[in-house]
Design goal:
Layout lengths: L4 E3 L2 E3 L3 E4 L6 H11 L3 E5 L13 H4 L6 E5 L6 H15 L3 E4 L13 H13 L3 E6 L3 H9 L4 E4 L13 H10 L5 E3 L5 H9 L4 E4 L1 H4 L4 H21 L21
Parallel strand pairs: 3-4, 3-10, 4-5, 6-7, 7-8, 9-10
Antiparallel strand pairs: 1-2
Helix pairs in contact: 1-9, 3-4, 5-6, 7-9
Length: 259
């Protein structure tokens, strides 16, 4: 079955996106990413060495693979910071596919400042960026981001790195109904079953970092996430049975022998 994820003019064979932070080294990052089957890895621009060839470079680690880099604006707290960050990144790398995130609470929840995100999105969209916008699980704000030019909406499942899983399943469904662009569940995924659940709710993809990078066995968890996303997507497309309060017999009762 051909079932690709399309974001702007990009087309991906995998619906799993992974992060690059919190690994013990670049080699583990690479092995886990390849095990996940992901074709897109998000990297914080402020942690990505793009100017000093003498220092270890994550981009060199992934040479020869089919993995694309997805720069993000982690650490930015205003629209202006995010806009400047991506302008400089595109000038240095030529990359136009970006993950836009503007954080409002940098101390505790790491929740996004969606109003600043919308401001940045409007400017960056006009400049030709393909924008994946990180946001809260609010369907109203998701629609506003789409209207501002976002090519994908990335609602959090729970606070970044918390591993709490999807805290409001209904809001993911509401967002999927509210927008026409892809919905990628981002932040809070803790294990493979969380990823499968997100896909079964109708999400177009899942992004996870901490759940893989800080697992006891990152490589095994990466592979588990790969299969979970595939299984969740197939389950969603297949269509689950309706929930019923009482049992229904699996075998027909017509023609049973009477005693």
């Amino acid at each position: 079955m051909t079932d690709t994820l399309k974001i702007g003019h990009y087309e991906l064979g995998s619906r799993l996106i992974v992060g690059s932070g919190k690994y013990k080294d670049f080699e583990t990052t690479k092995i886990a990413t390849l095990a996940s089957g992901s074709e897109l890895i998000t990297v914080a621009v402020r942690r990505l060495n793009i100017t000093d060839p003498a220092k270890e470079n994550l981009r060199d680690t992934f040479k020869g693979t089919n993995v694309k880099f997805l720069p993000n604006s982690a650490g930015c707290v205003t629209a202006e910071e995010a806009i400047t960050t991506f302008r400089l990144t595109r000038e240095a790398t030529g990359i136009d596919l970006i993950k836009l995130e503007v954080i409002g609470d940098t101390q505790k929840t790491l929740y996004p400042d969606v109003l600043e995100t919308i401001k940045a999105c409007e400017v960056l969209a006009k400049e030709g960026f393909i924008i994946m916008a990180y946001t809260s699980d609010d369907p109203i704000m998701a629609k506003r981001l789409e209207n501002a030019g976002a090519h994908a909406i990335m609602p959090l499942a729970a606070p970044i790195g918390s591993g709490l899983g999807i805290q409001n399943r209904y809001n993911i469904v509401f967002i999927r109904e509210a927008v026409k662009v892809p919905v990628i569940v981002d932040a809070g995924i803790g294990c493979a079953s969380d990823a499968a659940a997100a896909m079964e709710l109708g999400a177009d993809g899942v992004l996870t970092n901490t759940a893989i990078a800080q697992a006891k066995d990152p490589i095994a968890m990466a592979e588990a996430m790969k299969h979970a996303v595939i299984a969740g997507r197939l389950s969603y497309l297949a269509g689950r049975i309706p929930k019923r309060p009482y049992a229904t017999a699996s075998s027909p009762v017509d023609g049973m022998i009477q005693f």
